[in-house]
Amino acid sequence: MGTAPQTIVGGRYRLERQIGAGATARVWLAFDSVLERRVAIKMLAEPIGGESAHIERFRREARAVAQLQHPHIVAVLDSGEHEGMPFIVLEYVEGETLKERIRRVGRLTITEAVAFAIEIARALDAAHAHGIVHRDVKPQNILLDPEAGAKITDFGIARSGNETGLTIGGRVLGTTDYVSPEQALGHEVTGQSDIYSLGVVLYESLTGAVPFSAPSHVAVATMHVRDEIPDLQQRRPQVSAALAALVDRATAKHLARRYAGAREMIADLEEVLAIEAARTASAPGKEATVVLRSLPPRATRRLPMRVRHPVALALAAALAIVAAGAVAWLVLAHTHAGTPAPVDLPNTPGESPVHLAQTAAVAYNPFGTGPEDPDTVGNAIDGNPATSWRTSTYNTGALLESGVGFYVDAAPGAAVNQAVLETPMPGFHLQIWGADYVPAYTAHSTPQLGITPKQLGWTLLGQAVAATTTTTIALHAVRDRRFYLLWITDLGPDPSHAPIYVAISEFTLFQR
Question: Among all residues, which ones are annotated catalytic?
Answer without folding.
Answer: 136
